[in-house]
Amino acid sequence: MKKSIFLVSLMVFLFWSSLPAQKTKEQTELTIEKIMQDPVDWVGSLPKNIHWASDSRTIYYNWNPDGKPAEELYKINLDDLLKPEKVSIEEKQHIPPASASMNSSKDKKIYSKNGNLYIYNISKDSKKLLFSASQNIQSPSFTHNDEGVTFVMDGNLYKWDLQKQSLKQLVSFVSEQPPKSKKEQSAKDEWLQSQQTELFEVLRRKQDQKSYRDSIKKTKEKQPKTIYTGGAFATNIKLSPCERYITYTLYERSKSKNTKVPHYVNNTGYLEIENARSKVGGNQGSYQMHIYDTENDTTYPVSTDEIPGITERGEYLKEYEETDNDNDSPREVRTFGPHWSEDGKNAFITLRSEDNKDRWIMLLDVATGEPELLNRQRDEAWVAGPGIGRGGWGEETGWLPDNKHIWYQSEASGYSHLYILDVETKEEKALTEGNFEVYNPEISDDDQHWYFTTNEVHPGERHFYRMPLMGGETERLTSMEGRNEVTLSPDEEYMAIRHSYSNQPWEIYLKKTSPDAEAKKLTHSLTDDFQAYQWKEPEVITFKASDDEQVHARLYKPESIENTNNAAVIFVHGAGYLQNAHKWWSNYFREYMFHNLLVDRGYTVLDIDYRGSAGYGRKWRTAIYRHMGGKDLSDHIDGANYLVENHNINPDKIGIYGGSYGGFITLMGLFKHPGVFGAGAALRAVTDWAHYNHSYTSNILNEPTKDSIAYRRSSPIYYAEGLSDPLLLCHGMVDDNVQFQDIVRLTQRFIELGKEDWELSVYPVERHSFQEPESWTDEYKRIYKLFEENLR
């Protein structure tokens, strides 16, 4: 009897164990509707925008744990770490913003809010209203001696005297041509004017009254200098530490033809047209830095025509018979700064050539407007990288406390590292070195150390470090695997760390500024529904490309061979210069969840940091120069081969998809390598780079009229005849980035070529980044259907 019971039990066990694994209560099943719903309702509100109170005892951050229509300001006090609190309206109005400027003694802050200028006393935790205006107050900062505050209002520079409690306008910019002087009048006009005053008594009286008023004005306080800008706009207006010089940049707007974005679904019921960006190669406007010497009442430009290398053209122009490569006229430049030393004696500026192949760092003689070269960075592709920025934005640079050295970042070694340079001897020194990137360097409050972030441990990790000011051994201050975004307390005793891992979204941790201290989790942001699923940890791997380079990627695999369908999907991240094969919570979180769903249903997923991606140095960054759809595409072809050779994937069952740049790669893959991918989904895809924007495209492909070779070999629309595999196109109709016209033009090419195995899905209310859950759901249902029908 016992033997029979045992045999029956064994048979039942074997029967049940042979069935597919059942989802437990904790392991809920994913659906597209679930993962594409509002992320606040589904994932949770993730904390961001961390900043500290001035007393280093309170952490502020934006959060929305209650699912309100918008995020609100929360705080955690170090005296009660378990009690996050919503900041009251009264307290929110009282505390200075994180962007407030501090005085030299670091006991006061200045900031503007809603047209009001406030000064905040840190030790007393009190604020005082200095000035109220009807216009917006911008860029408030203390003067060098801390006795006043300067700010920009209505496009002009003002100074508030903290001792006299008085306001003075320092300069008046007028966007007009200057009035003609009498010397510029024609003899005829001068004769007519003289005749009028001779004949008419009323005109003589008015002229006498004006002369009297002008004489009275001369006895009053000196009026601000009027500077006529001739239609240009004054920006970046700054007062020098000695208060003698005012520097400013005149920007003359582009005269290029703008594109239009039609809105078919809107509140009016009528078609509405939105003005949008121009296209690459159009006139981008001009920038010229000027100086106003208040003592001599003179204005003059910062001279850029003689800076070293200013006439050098790109090497690519040698491929063209008719070229301006021998043109010896100066290139257009854009100037940033000036950056003044703490003692107020010296200033330097950074300059960028408009073709973005040169970056200069130069001392500026404000008395003459003449710059002196300190450092030149030349790249035949384009100058960029962490701390170097693109087009001048996002630059990391400044003075050391000794007022003798400047610091900056450079890719001279092949990776973006931290450098210092002695402005007297011109001696340069690299403070960091190695095959990794440096991010966000800052000098400690006591002027003894650097703090910065690097990916030295692994390209897919970010950690926070401390290093002696003049260089030396670095000390890693974070240890949690993934990404650590550190905000130091004002006294630098604590680090507020915004941390995430590949399958764990962002939370805030608190840690003493020490390598051995323990990190304490302060926020708990995830919903119960989200945590009910066991999110997969993708394996960060490398595979060898056809040119022997090691390519980093994320790999998602079913748990066992029995669960696989021998099909794979390759995801292509967007933006080009972006990283996604990393160990932190991705900005592509919807795609990450979709990949979890695909793996549950038997697919293998590969997510590649292809050539051009961020985090791997200058060589990787510029590998796509003049040929997008070259090495970046071959990395995906090599990725498909890697899956076949190493993960038992059927070569006929590999799909590819991505948005924006990812959509572009998808198109190039299907058009240029038919048969490699069994199906592809191109979302908001660039189809012709000549129709994209200038700031991004001109760096990589130069300009269409100057480098037509690069545009023709990089644009999918020229290869559309190669389409033979199923293709899904999805595009928002009010996309003002990759505009809807892009996909319409490709559609017409398909029609004229007689192509059949493609479909276009349009989203009438969506821009480049979709917002509505219904749109995300519809799009990804179509993507999933495409793969199910063609890869199973």
Would you tell me the structural class of the helices and strands? alpha+beta
Major sheet strand order: 37-38-40-39-41-42-43-44
So how many helices?
15
Poorly predicted regions:
1-26
Q: Please bin the fraction of helical residues.
A: 10-25%
| Large-scale geometry | globular
- CA-CA gap between termini: 48 Å
Overall average residue pLDDT: 92
The count of strands amounts to 44
CA radius of gyration is: 31 Å
Measured by DSSP, the beta-strand proportion falls in 25-35%
- Largest sheet report: 8 strands, mixed
Detailed description of the structure:
The protein is an alpha+beta fold and 792 residues long. The strands form 11 sheets. The protein has an 8-stranded mixed β-sheet, with helices on both faces. The model is unreliable at 1-26 (pLDDT under 50). The two termini are 48 Å apart. It is built from 15 helices and 44 strands. A hairpin with a 4-residue loop joins strand 19 and strand 20.
Summarize the entry for a quick read.
It is built from 15 helices and 44 strands.
